[in-house]
Amino acid sequence: MVRGPRSVKRANQAARAGRKEEISPPPSVVGRPSSVFRLLLQISSGSDLISRSSSQIPGRKTPQDPTSDLSPRSDLQSMLTKFETKSNRVKGVSFHSKRPWVLASLHSGVVQLWDYRMGTLIDRFDEHDGPVRGVHFHKSQPLFVSGGDCYFVQIRSNNLKCSIYLYLFSEGDALFVGDDYKIKVWNYKTHRCLFTLLGHLDYIRTVQFHDEHPWIVSASDDQTIRIWNWQSRTCISVLTGHNHYVMCASFHPKEDLVVSASLDQTIRVWDISSLRKKVAPADDLLRLGQINSDLFGGVDAVVKYVLEGHDRGVNWASFHPSLPLIVSGADDRQVKLWRMNDTKAWEVDTLRGHMNNVSCVMFHAKQDIIVSNSEDKSIRIWDATKRTGIQTFRREHDRFWILAAHPELNLLAAGHDSGMIVFKLERERPAFSVSGDALYYVKDRFLRVYEFSSQKDNQVVPIRRPGSVSLNQGPRTLSFSPTENAVLICSDVDGGSYELYIVPKDAAGRGDYMQDARKGAGASAVFVARNRFAVLDKSSNQAIVKNLKNEIVKKSPLPIGTDAIYYAGTGNLLCRAEDRVLIFDLQQRIVLGELQTPSVKYIVWSSDMESVALLGKHTIVIANKKLVHRCTLHETIRVKSGAWDDKGVFIYTTLNHIKYCLPNGDGGIIKTLDNTIYITKVSGNNIYCLDRDGKNHTISIDSTEYVFKLSLFHKRYDHVMNMIRNSQLCGQAVISYLQQKGFPEVALHFVKDEKTRFNLALESGNIQIAVASAKEIDDKDHWYRLGIEALRQGNTSIVEYAYQRTKNFERLSFLYLITGNEEKLSKMLKIAEIKNDIMGQFHNAMYLGDVHERIKILEHAGHLPLAYVTAVSHGLKEIASRLATELGENVPTLPEGKKRSLLLPPSSLICCGDWPMLRVMRGIFDNGLDTGKAGNEEEEDASNADWGDEELDIVDVDDMIQNADIGITAELDDGIPNEDNEEGGWDLEDLELPPDADTPKASGNATSLFVAPTPGMPVSQIWIQKSSLAGEHVAAGNFDTAMRLLTRQLGFKNFAPLKPLFMDLLLGSHTYMNAFASAPAMSIAVERNWSESASPNVRGPPALIFKFFQMDEKLKAAYRATTDGKFPEALRLFLNILHAIPLIVVDSRREVDEVKELIEIAREYVLGLKIEVKRKELKDNSVRQQELAAYFTNCKLQKIHSRLVLTNAMTICYKGGNFATAANFARMLLENGPTEIQAKKARQVLQHAGDRQDANQLNYDYRNPFVVCGETYVPIYRGQKDVSCPYCGARFVPSAEGHLCSVCELAVVGADASGLLCSPAQSR
């Protein structure tokens, strides 16, 4: 029995080993072509497939080839991966020629469309029922084509047809894959299939569009290649001749040639020049001839060459883009290079290295290299000229199946078992350096110089080509010394090296100038002085400084593990580590600044070296010259380059945008890019840049937006006003920015939408524009919000008008109550009566204090008991008796012994008018941008002057609300019910309201020269805004920040002793004033050095009750208590000094020194007094008493107290039998100028002690200098380890670290602290 191709495949899986996992289950027998047609096709193509057994077919080794592990490993990151996906096996990839899109066809039957620049999945198409092996974008038309595996046959006119799929997409169309391996054209929006192409008899391996003609070439396992016209939707040629599966077919990029590769171990080149004249048949006779041509092959395409040389089936063959070369890869694990001419083709060389079947191979479009991938899980790069291997990239677990090159860019894509990667082989960023008006850069192995002003570009010095055959060996960085005209070029050659060139002054434009560069090894090199450069030695982590003769001058160890160095000013290096950067002074060998930051790739200094931008992969960190952080920007796509403009704005580029970054971290987009550029310089509105080909470009930009924002940031409001008048600033982004930054009044001038104007007017407090917008919108919610804002401003007329428009009678009544407008309250009572609103009537009567009306309302409502109680409570006996008669026995009893009080409304503070408004001058924007009638009365003399009287859209509230009658004659006609109308509604014309309420007025105190002030920042908040002084924070009432400051500065932990001082300081820095009897007292901050002549807009620091001269008084009192022997009292006074000093603020540096001296004095006395108190508590331990007395003498005290302490210690030691120690104290006493009594006593001790020794051994050695531990009261001799209190400086044994200081009782021993800060002068 003769078997068809599908049954042969299943029988010969060994011939398809390595692809057997791709074979889909066989379709139903129904619909298969008859064996006669299969036999005809195979005979016509010369196929011996039917008679060939599995052992005779050129087989393939299984994918798990044991030799594959012998392949050398390489780091996948070195291939510069730009994008990677995770999915099922990718069998086909294709780049779009213009957009950053890549198609991936999966073994699961899905086609994915990715944006490789943004890293996002745009769409997916899952109409295929089996693996999709081929996809291809059209070069210019909005088309792509895909081919799949699901075996489907339709018999039409006895013609056998299988299928491939065509996709159509445009801005409004979508790409979708048809099912059953047909070519289907879908509309993107409607998902409608447009047409299907049928013809192949077996799996489709590859599909490709022709660049110029409307052709598609497809290769199939039916051993044929078909060329289709996608415009006429017909097959125009069938190329037969291969006698095994055709694995790929592709057009020549320029000539009328097709190359194909087959498992019959051959590569065929086809001449298709005859297809140019072919026209689709029009009648049935010609169509029958077309059918025969489809079966047996036509003459439109002829075999030009048959290339034989591979030992196994060939998987791929492709043309060189410009040269007459072909490269092929096969299952024999070899890559072969072929050359052809007009008459013949021959093998040039064989590239060996792959350990398994070569899946795909191609020439690189821009370099003389060949790229191949294989089922051995590797991608190999070959030198096409030397025909040697350059580099190998390897994955751990994924076999590679397909390669694709971008038609325009230096990008490659590879599909593997678990997804796809988009990568490039070498960096494309040119190495460049800007010096003044010149740009030095490397292009085409030449050092070139470009002058920005004249735009002249000259080559200066030829750069030697690296001898290494690895990738990424070109120049990476360039450093220029303008004084010596020297250039340092760094590259990755030999693991990192540099070349030093001295450029002669007259070398510009000379192409014949040659120079032997001075070379050296180093990860990076940069000039640090006029004739010195530093080289990074990563092995020893040193910066090696060399002169221009390449001689070592000095070596400096670097403070952190550094992987790159950059220039940071003369003699300074910016060292980059993995997670931080720092500036290192090579001369002093000290760190000048340090900043933690994500991984940094590039460093860009401003022209004045005051600011630096640290560029990472997706981040930009802005810092000052000391690496103090200013702001950080995060980008979703890669940051490529940047430069500072003249105004201090950082301009940078991403893959597709030019953007800006202001000093405060605000950013935005300046321009969208078609191609990636690298900014070299920004000057005015021009950006100078290099593209990836090393060409210089000048791009003009509109800097209005970021200059406007920069002027706002610097508060240069004159520039802002000028830009508003003269520029075309607009858009929601500008409005949102102004609103966000607290300038809604400026945003008002950009807005025409009434709702937005209303919101901005409320935010800025511009009640005039808010009323105008509310009138246009006429929405209840907007009137309600307007009423709230007007009430906040105290503009009762506008509040009244807003309540009228919303018919909010309850709020109107309450408004009249608090403003004391009893007349209008009476009218509201009548309105409520007409509306039959019982509660409204009662409330208005209660607001008016009208008892008779309340009784009347209660009586009419049927609440006779309540009416009776009200009458009795208010002494209305006649009405009470009448009501009692009506109630009869149901008269309520009133509680006895209770004192009655009348319920009367409170007196209003302001009667019938707006609240008084604070008169303030207009802001800079109001003066510059608003006009109006205000000010004509006060400044009549200036009415005819040229002060910019152009008209602006300012609304007069008087004109806007002139017909708003408080009687609600017009607005509320439909809201008051007529007595004759059961449906509601009431006629206000019958109320005959007086004319004085016809038109609500804006505040009479506020003219258009003045505006209501926006709530300012409280003075207490101003005090702490820029202050680091704890005392000022306490005075502002911000205890939390004060305690944090004290903890950071002095290591404080125990704040209990400071609580009363905090409270005293807070109360002493404020005064309180009663405004009205019913209003709470107002707190007023008391400022230091305030005077009436001071500007009201400038706030001084708080007035503190603790002053330094008070400490002198306390110190004298403590001295007196010490002299008098009142040790507990003296100890309390000295501790009080120590506790008050952190809250003191002084003015000068000299006073700061005096404060620190006072701390030392108080510390010594507190320590000594605590020792003395401790000594007196000991009764039975004579030795310890003598030791403590001796330690007391070591404290630095006033002379009078030192003499007393020495006398005391001498006496105690003498009585204790320690004569030698007592004699020593006697000598010390005599040296301190004692009184006569003290001197006499000391001489007596010396006389009686003589040469006698101590009876007891004391832990005291007066010969060895020591300090006393403040916790254990033991000596710490010189050379012994100790810890100290960060505030008072008391010393402790190491075991006391972390304990509360027992001297000052505030700080933690050994805590990290920055030091006492008690004067603004210290911050300056």
From TrEMBL:
Q: Which Gene Ontology cellular component annotation is one that this UniProt entry carries?
A: Golgi membrane
Repeat (WD) residue spans along the chain:
197-238, 239-280, 307-348, 351-392
Where is this protein found? Cytoplasmic vesicle, COPI-coated vesicle membrane; Golgi apparatus membrane
The segment(s) forming the COPA/B TPR domain are 719-879
Please list the residue ranges annotated as the Coatomer alpha subunit C-terminal domain: 923-1324
Domain (COPA/B second beta-propeller) ranges: 447-691
The UniProt entry lists membrane topology as: Peripheral membrane protein
State the name under which the record lists this protein: Coatomer subunit alpha
**Species classification:** Eukaryota, Viridiplantae, Streptophyta, Embryophyta, Tracheophyta
The record lists the organism as Zingiber officinale (Ginger)
Query: What's this protein's function?
Result: The coatomer is a cytosolic protein complex that binds to dilysine motifs and reversibly associates with Golgi non-clathrin-coated vesicles, which further mediate biosynthetic protein transport from the ER, via the Golgi up to the trans Golgi network. Coatomer complex is required for budding from Golgi membranes, and is essential for the retrograde Golgi-to-ER transport of dilysine-tagged proteins.
GO terms of biological process kind: endoplasmic reticulum to Golgi vesicle-mediated transport; intra-Golgi vesicle-mediated transport; intracellular protein transport; retrograde vesicle-mediated transport, Golgi to endoplasmic reticulum
Acidic residues composition-biased segments: 972-995
What is the superkingdom listed in this entry's lineage? Eukaryota
Compositionally biased tracts (Polar residues): 64-74
What GO terms are given for molecular function? structural molecule activity
Q: Where is this region: Disordered?
A: 1-32, 50-74, 972-1004
What residue range is the signal peptide? none
Q: Give the keywords, sorted.
A: Cytoplasm, Cytoplasmic vesicle, ER-Golgi transport, Golgi apparatus, Membrane, Protein transport, Repeat, Transport, WD repeat
UniProt xrefs under PROSITE patterns: WD_REPEATS_1 (PS00678), WD_REPEATS_2 (PS50082), WD_REPEATS_REGION (PS50294)
Question: What Pfam family is a match for this entry?
Answer: B-prop_COPA_B_2nd
Summarize subunit and interaction data from the UniProt record for this chain. Answer: Oligomeric complex that consists of at least the alpha, beta, beta', gamma, delta, epsilon and zeta subunits.
Q: Which Gene3D superfamilies match?
A: 1.25.40.470, YVTN repeat-like/Quinoprotein amine dehydrogenase (2.130.10.10)
